[in-house]
Amino acid sequence: MKIATYNVNGINGRLPVLLRWLAQSQPDIVCLQELKAPQEKFPDKPIRDLGYDAIWQGQKSWNGVAILSRVGQIHETRRGLPGDPDDSHSRYIEAAVNGILIGGLYLPNGNPKPGPKFDYKLRWFDRLIAHAGELLATGQPVMLAGDFNVMPTDLDVYKPERWLDDALFAPEARAAYFRLLEQGWTDALRTLHPDEAIYTFWDYFRNAFARNAGLRIDHLLLSPPLAERLVDAQVDVAVRGWEKSSDHAPVWIELADATTSARRAAPRRRVTPVRA
DNA sequence: ATGCCTAATGCAATTAGA
Helix crossing, A116-137 with A171-181: angle to 10°? Predict the structure, then answer.
């Protein structure tokens, strides 16, 4: 089973790119972020025409998250993180699909730092960690996938020294990411590629993609029962080069069937996350 | 320190992204 996350940066402006990628990459389940569309403007008809069921939480102009599936019903379990009834941003949607509980998230950017936006990012992160701990404690197959707006280590930034004061690379943001990981989550991409500089985002500015001046900020985190099934994890880098592309590229993982031993299918390396 | 680019809103210029 192939599960992907993709920050589309405007689902209507990006629709041809999204549909082309879905048809080509054929993911079974997809988490989308930054729909930038109100609830009623989600293009569910062309997505259904490609064979995908969908749930989404839209918002006018900003944010917005969705989960797509072509492998069985999407049983929604919540939209919005607990812990702040005044949080009006559409940044979290969660559902059980094909035996996996999936939390699709768009963590706040947090710039400029310091300021109220950075404070909101850290508070949101705390709420995510609290909720993630409860999900992990169930012992069930759980995945958190989306745009975390955090580069965990120097290896995840093309030029780390330039990003030290940025909300995406601030020590507080990285510390929060590792507090989350240390609950017992596996960072799928980094676990299968422990030493590679891998990016999922390239700025529209300054020809960043051509220079490979990128960041790794889109992550797929797996609970232990899913981590055992991890056989592959990749970024569809080429999609970033398509005309009218998002500034993010899709990221995906391949999971062995629940009944199949991943160890037999493809032994995976275990790595301990390096602290920032 | 700022613009560089792009989308949404709504029709000019602002906000937000990362």
Answer: 10
User: CA of A196: how far to CAs of A129, A154, A158, A185, A199, in Å?
Assistant: 27, 11, 12, 20, 9
Catalytic residues of A: 106, 147, 248
Q: Are A217 and A200 in contact (CB under 8 A)?
A: yes
Find residues whose C-beta atom lies within 7 angstroms of strand B. A 7, 9-14, 34, 36-38, 60-62, 108-109, 111-112, 117, 147, 149, 168, 201, 203-206, 215, 217, 244, 247-248
Measured CA to CA, the distance from residue A157 to residue A27 in angstroms comes to 27
Nucleotide nearest to A7 (CA to C1'): B17
Name the residue closest to the C1' of B4 by its CA: A205
Question: For the residues A256-266, what does the mean pLDDT come to?
Answer: 68
3-state DSSP helix/strand/coil percent for chain A, to nearest 5?
30, 25, 45
What's the pLDDT band for A261 if we cut at 50, 70, 90?
low
Q: Which residue has the higher pLDDT, A274 or A241?
A: A241
Domain A2-261 has CATH 3.40.440.10: no
Tell me the whole-structure pTM to 2 decimals.
Answer: 0.94
Q: Is A34 annotated as a binding residue?
A: yes
Any idea where the domains of chain A sit in the sequence?
A: 2-261
Q: How far apart are CA A196 and CA A192, in angstroms?
A: 10
- Using a 7 Å cut-off to protein CB atoms, list the covered nucleotides of chain B: 3-9, 16-18
Determine what percent of chain A is predicted with pLDDT higher than 70: 94
